[in-house]
Design goal:
globular, 10 helices, FAD/NAD(P)-binding domain, 3 domains
Length: about 475
C-alpha cells in the first residue's frame, strides 16, 4: 500500500496515529482529492478498529463480529501506505522529517498528530501489580477477555464512562462487581446531577456495588498479583481483576519535544492547525478553539475525532472553514444508552422534563441565556425530542445527527430561524420539544420575544434503555 497518487513527488502527508482520527484523515484526504503520498503510522499491529465496543460487546463475546473500521482494501485502493507496529521517536519541524524507532527518516510536506490519549494512572500503592489493567486499546481488551473466565470479583476504580461500561459488562458476565468513585457522583464532569443519580440507581439495581465520595487507599497483592482493593475508609474489597478507569492523558510528548504549543493537548486553531506551519493535530490529543465555549477544549469521542479528521482534510486541500461541529457522545451501560450533545460543563441551570421514575426524562442544560437540551428515556414509545434546527442564514436547516436529535446549535446566535422555529416547531422535532427549549432558554417565557438575543445552546443529555 504505497506509492505516489499522481501528485508532485514532494507532496507527502504523514499521519501519526491510526485510531478513529488518523484512519479517517487518511481516507478523507483521498475523498477530498489530495493527490500526494499518504503514510499512516500505526503503532499497533491491528488494522484500525472501532474502540467503543472494547468495554462492552467485545468483552462479553470477543469471538463475535469484527471491529475493523474499514477493510484493508480501503487503504490499498486509495494508495495509503500503512506502517504497522511503527513508533515515532522524533519529529523535526525545521527539517520536516519524522524519525521512526527503527532508524528510518521520513520527510513530509504536511504532518498530522492523531496520537490519541492514554489511561491516566493514579498514584496508588499496588497499581503495578499483575491483574491491574486499563482499557484503551485492543491489546488491553484481549488481555481482559482472556482473564475473565477465571475472574470472580472485579473492582473498578473510577466512575466515568469506561468504568461504568466495564462494570455493566462484568455484571453481565456474572462477576461480583464493585465500582469506586472518589467524586460525589459518577460522570460528574460530563452530565447533569439528575442523570448521574439515575445512572447510579440503575447501576445499583443491576447489582453493581457502587460507592461515591470514596477514594482508594491501596491495591493489595500477594506474590505480585492483585487480590483486592482497600478503600479510603479502610474497607477491603476482594478482586481478581482491578480496572483503572480514572480518565485519560493526551499523548503530547512527541509534539512538545518538537516545540509545539501544548494546552491540555496539542493546541490547534479552528482549522486544526498547530503552532507550527504545515502541522496539524486532531482527535483526542488536540485542544481546539471551541466556537461556543469561547476557549480551547479537548474532547474524547469518536464523533469529534472523525469530524476533525474530515475537517482537516478539507483544510489541506484549500476548502477550509472554521470547525463548527457540535460534540455528541453515547455510552451503552447495560440496558441503558446515554446520549449527549453539546457541552454542558459550564451550565448554570438544568431543566428536567419527564419522570426519572418512569425511566423517561430529558435534562436540558443552560448557561445564562444560552440554551441546550437533551433526553433521557427508557420506554421505546416515549421520548422528548429536542430543538433540532441549525441556523443557516435566516432559515433553519433540518437536523442531521442520527435522527434522534438534530444539531443543538439550532438555537444559534442572532438568526431569524428562531422565530421560524417557533412558528414551525415541526422543523425542530415537534411543538413540545422546540418550544420548550426556546422558552426555557429565554428564562421560562412563553413567546420568542427577545429570542434573537440568544447566543445558542450549551448542550443536552439523552439516554435510553
Amino acid at each position: 500500500m504505497s506509492g505516489n497518487f499522481g501528485g508532485p513527488m514532494d507532496d507527502r502527508c504523514i499521519i501519526i496515529g491510526a485510531g478513529h482520527a488518523g484512519s479517517q484523515a487518511a481516507v478523507s484526504l483521498r475523498q477530498e482529492g489530495y493527490a500526494g503520498e499518504i503514510i499512516l503510522i500505526n503503532d499497533e499491529t491491528d488494522i484500525p478498529y472501532h474502540k467503543p465496543p472494547l468495554s462492552k460487546s467485545y468483552l462479553k463475546a470477543p469471538e463475535k463480529g469484527s471491529l475493523v473500521l474499514r477493510p484493508e482494501s480501503a487503504y490499498r485502493d486509495n494508495n495509503i501506505e500503512m506502517l504497522f507496529g511503527a513508533h515515532v521517536d522524533a519529529v523535526s519541524i525545521a527539517e520536516r522529517t519524522v524519525t521512526l524507532g527503527d532508524g528510518r527518516v521520513l520527510p513530509w510536506s504536511e504532518l498530522v498528530f492523531a496520537t490519541g490519549a492514554r489511561a491516566r494512572i493514579p498514584d496508588v500503592p499496588g497499581v503495578a501489580l499483575e491483574g491491574v489493567v486499563t482499557l484503551r486499546r485492543m491489546e488491553d481488551a484481549r488481555r481482559i477477555a482472556a482473564m475473565m473466565p477465571d475472574v470472580r470479583n472485579v473492582v473498578i476504580i473510577g466512575g466515568g464512562f469506561i468504568g461504568l461500561e466495564m462494570a455493566h459488562s462484568a455484571i453481565a458476565l456474572g462477576k461480583k462487581t464493585v465500582l469506586i468513585e472518589a467524586a460525589p457522583r459518577v460522570l460528574g464532569r460530563s452530565v447533569a446531577a439528575p442523570v448521574s443519580a439515575h445512572v447510579e440507581a440503575r447501576s445499583r439495581a443491576a447489582d453493581i456495588t457502587l460507592l461515591t465520595g470514596l477514594g482508594v487507599a491501596s491495591i493489595e497483592g500477594e506474590n505480585g498479583r492483585a487480590i483486592g482493593v482497600t478503600a479510603g475508609d479502610g474497607t477491603f474489597f476482594p478482586a481478581d481483576l482491578v480496572v483503572i478507569g480514572t480518565g485519560a492523558v493526551p499523548n503530547v510528548e512527541l509534539a512538545a519535544k518538537a516545540g509545539l504549543s501544548i494546552d491540555n493537548g496539542i493546541r490547534v486553531d479552528e482549522h486544526m492547525r498547530t503552532s507550527a506551519p504545515h502541522v496539524y493535530a486532531i482527535g483526542d490529543c488536540a485542544s481546539y478553539a471551541h466556537f461556543h465555549a469561547g476557549r480551547h477544549v479537548r474532547l474524547e469521542s469518536v464523533q469529534n475525532a472523525t469530524d476533525q479528521a474530515k475537517h482537516f482534510a478539507r483544510t489541506i486541500v484549500g476548502r477550509e472553514t472554521p470547525y463548527r461541529e457540535v460534540a455528541w457522545f453515547w455510552s451503552d451501560q447495560g440496558d441503558m444508552k446515554l446520549q449527549t450533545a453539546g457541552l454542558s460543563f459550564d451550565a448554570d441551570r438544568h431543566v428536567l422534563s419527564g419522570e426519572p421514575e418512569e425511566n423517561a426524562f430529558s435534562v436540558f442544560s443552560f448557561q445564562g441565556r444560552q440554551a441546550g437540551g437533551g433526553r433521557f428515556h427508557q420506554s421505546p414509545g416515549r421520548s422528548y425530542d429536542c430543538a433540532s434546527s441549525a441556523c443557516g442564514g435566516d432559515q433553519p436547516k433540518r437536523g442531521r445527527y442520527y435522527g434522534w436529535y438534530a444539531a443543538p446549535q439550532g438555537i444559534a446566535g442572532g438568526c431569524g430561524a428562531i422565530k421560524v422555529l417557533w412558528k414551525r416547531p415541526d422543523l425542530g422535532g415537534g411543538e413540545e420539544s422546540v418550544r420548550f427549549l426556546i422558552a426555557e432558554g429565554m428564562g421560562g417565557g412563553e413567546t420568542p420575544g427577545d429570542i434573537l438575543e440568544t447566543e445558542g445552546p450549551r448542550g443536552f443529555i439523552r439516554s435510553q434503555s
